[in-house]
Amino acid sequence: MSVQKPSIPKGTRDFGQKEMARRNYIFDTIRSVFRTYGYQQIETPALENLSTLLGKYGEEGDKLLFRILNSGDAFAKVDFQKPLASQVCEKGLRYDLTVPFARYVVQHQNEISFPFKRFQIQPVWRADRPQKGRYREFYQCDVDVIGSRSQLNELELVQMVDAVFGKLNVRVGIHINNRKLLTGFAEIAGAPDKVVDITVAIDKLDKIGLEKVKEEMAEKGLDARGIAVIEQILSLQGGFEEKQAAMKALFNGGSASGIVSETGLRGLEELAELFGLIDAAGVSAPVEMDLSLARGLNYYTGAIFEVKALDWEIGSICGGGRYDNLTGIFGLPDLSGVGISFGADRIYDVLTGLDLFPVSLETSTRLLFAVMGEEEMKYVLPIAKSLREKGISVEIYPEATKLKKQFDYADRKSIPFISINGSNETASGTVNLKNLESGQQQSFSLSDMEGILNFIA
User: Fold this and answer.
1) Domains, the chain
2) pTM for the full predicted model
């Protein structure tokens, strides 16, 4: 009888030692930047009640929630005349980190100080169709501040994006829009009740093109004049000032409908303030006003962010925005927040594709002590202890075997230095070191720890 080869679900991945070193390089870089802006780390459970998750991501987002079957005999008391899912599934895997964060804030509101600045680095799950750069299980690195409406918070998000990708040596473009502009689009298109339909369609512009977007809006009931208004908006070119002037004219009644949108004008004012702060702060990465940026998440109410790598095609690697009403659905109204999520898995793919991971990540071990016999092993034990106490990663080969096997081990793990000590070294109180790349070899007295450290530095 043949044994079936084990496998993992589609859209998930194993990560070995090399991959974990690279992932931790990303996490540590992001974490270090978050902390310089005063953000502190929290964690929330992988499982949330479906009542927490449902209705927060729009109709399409709800379809991508992984539901968890109730424990025990979930079907024992099922009424098959009623919807099945709600009877057998009360919990789900978290879809993102923002909604659980809002739940956390409401649940712990008496324990935290506002404005509350937190970050999370945890996995999330989506029942999506796996494809390049899109996974069913992936990590998000979220940073949010809640309890302040100041656009200094938006600026700091942009600055953190700039700092993180500067440290990772990845060139990125930062795209910014405002949810109020999207509401204004629907208003001047004569379809204020179809803002979600318009937003969902616009969000697919990069994937399906303008003609398909127009077809989808028509299917949702938007008339020809309204579609023409949206097409005019999406066709605007130029920098922030040019787009701002054109949109201000449209929102003031200059579109084919002649409708004025106060909401759209407020969105323009917010963007003008934010872009002014960005200019004053001297952000290095290019930042643009992207009127096609919609993001199909229903809870955004202000600024919307999306970040794309300029030298690698993979889609968005960061996204976020301001949400004024999210905690209200959990019983804590009028608490505004803003945040952004770093897509760690896509960032990993970008760094891999551009060969930007430091070579030093290939191994965590700096020095391997080869073992000639039991006495030689005992001899190097205190040397290894001293080096480890000084922060040097050291391994001792676990058994006395052929030197070729021990050299092969060092080569496979990309260990740059090896120490071979026999009876001569133990008798003279010295340690022999060899640089495996250059072939340079040198002996040091056990008391010359500074010389040993300089050699393997």
Assistant:
1) 17-353 (3.30.930.10), 363-456 (3.40.50.800)
2) 0.84
